[in-house]
């Protein structure tokens, strides 16, 4: 886009922008160097196992892109969608920015994964990628429609239909986000289990895994939303707060002195700062204001329960896998 076009775009008060990311990434990568592999000796069991692990980890990264894309779609297209408010003249301007990231082609889930898991991965990834692909086209069409002020000619008829479909896709992506999150955890568990044997410090990995499983109990309880047992939640938050302090100031104190690394990320940045601290704050606020708990537990994108679950289910296992690869 030329400079004058950029300035004109920024000057519009009624504006939707659509950035479409249709990249080839982890899910599309095939094993390269086929001619060399054809001439090489058959891989040993150890070599094959490592190759399988790399393939699964690459696929896991692609799955995370889809999961993140669904979360973004749920927020932008459904929950924070301001089209209707602008349509009813409750807001003077409409500015929605949406980056739709999807894959041009999806490869099947790796053959080394369990037979019970692969079909569920293929199904969920296919539905998520299809929804994101459709949302990209529909959003671009709505952006062009509004930026051209075509609504003045058809009295918003086409815009209303496009926006209604985007809201539907946003809601669908919200459900798919939860499905992909569960599948991500299953895949991460398998990768961690197979990687523990080659870790430089298997004892530290075992401790991290045990602590993650304890945190997962909180995540599972939070999935119940408003039906979560708050006495159980409060007890788990207290245990995890104590656990975080013990690990940071005792078990791994020497490791954390230098700063950085997967252990600091796991215990300080995630378990402490992103799980224990915000949950203690929320529990205090909930005792003073019941509305705070209702807001935090509602079935919608980016609320407090949703955010904490994401830290436990994705950031913690990712830190464990990083530790297995790097040893710190």
Q: How would you describe the overall organization of this protein?
A:
By secondary structure, this protein is mostly helical. It folds into 2 domains: 1-198, no CATH class; 200-328. 71% of the residues lie in helices and 5% in strands. The chain has helices spanning 3-11, 34-39, 45-79, 83-87, 118-147, 151-154, 157-195, 202-222, 230-251, 253-256, 261-288, 290-297, 304-326, and strands at 14-21, 94-101. The protein has a two-stranded parallel sheet with strand order 1-2. The protein is globular, with a radius of gyration of 23 Å.
Largest sheet: 2 strands, parallel
The proportion of strand residues reads: under 5%
Oligomer: single chain
Q: Helical proportion?
A: over 70%
Biggest β-sheet: strands ordered side by side in the sheet: 1-2
Secondary-structure-derived class: mainly alpha
Count of helical stretches: 13
- Tell me the count of domains: 2
Rg, alpha carbons: 23 Å
Report the end-to-end length measured between terminal Cα atoms.
45 Å
Average pLDDT level: 86
Shape: globular
Count of strand segments: 2
Order of helices and strands: HEHHHEHHHHHHHHH
Poorly predicted runs of 5 or more residues: 1-15, 18-43
In short:
With 328 residues, this protein is mainly alpha-helical. Helices cover 71% and strands 5% of the residues. It has helices at 3-11, 34-39, 45-79, 83-87, 118-147, 151-154, 157-195, 202-222, 230-251, 253-256, 261-288, 290-297, 304-326; strands at 14-21, 94-101.
């Amino acid at each position: 886009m030329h400079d004058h076009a950029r300035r004109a775009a920024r000057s519009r008060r009624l504006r939707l922008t659509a950035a479409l990311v249709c990249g080839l990434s982890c899910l599309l990568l095939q094993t390269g160097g086929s001619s060399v592999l054809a001439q090489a000796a058959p891989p040993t069991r150890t070599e094959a196992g490592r190759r399988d692990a790399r393939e699964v980890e690459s696929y896991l990264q692609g799955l995370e892109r889809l999961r993140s894309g669904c979360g973004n779609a749920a927020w932008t297209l459904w929950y924070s969608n301001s089209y209707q408010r602008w349509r009813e003249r409750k807001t003077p301007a409409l500015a929605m920015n949406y980056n739709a990231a999807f894959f041009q082609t999806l490869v099947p889930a790796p053959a080394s994964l369990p037979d019970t898991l692969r079909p569920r991965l293929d199904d969920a990834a296919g539905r998520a990628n299809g929804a994101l692909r459709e949302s990209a086209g529909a959003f671009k069409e709505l952006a062009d429609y509004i930026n051209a002020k075509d609504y003045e000619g058809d009295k918003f008829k086409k815009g209303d239909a496009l926006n209604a479909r985007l809201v539907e896709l946003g809601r669908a992506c919200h459900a798919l986000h939860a499905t992909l999150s569960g599948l991500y955890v299953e895949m991460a568990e398998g990768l961690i289990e197979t990687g523990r044997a080659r870790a430089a410090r298997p004892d530290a990995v075992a401790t991290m895994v045990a602590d993650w499983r304890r945190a997962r109990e909180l995540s599972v309880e939070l999935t119940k939303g408003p039906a979560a047992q708050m006495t159980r939640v409060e007890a788990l938050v207290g245990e995890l707060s104590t656990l975080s302090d013990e690990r940071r100031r005792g078990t791994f104190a020497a490791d954390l002195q230098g700063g950085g690394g997967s252990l600091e990320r796991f215990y300080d940045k995630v378990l402490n700062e992103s799980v224990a601290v915000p949950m203690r704050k929320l529990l205090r606020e909930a005792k003073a204001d019941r509305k705070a708990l209702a807001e935090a537990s509602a079935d919608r994108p980016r609320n407090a329960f949703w955010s904490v679950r994401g830290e436990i289910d994705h950031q913690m296992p990712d830190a464990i896998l990083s530790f297995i690869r790097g040893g710190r």
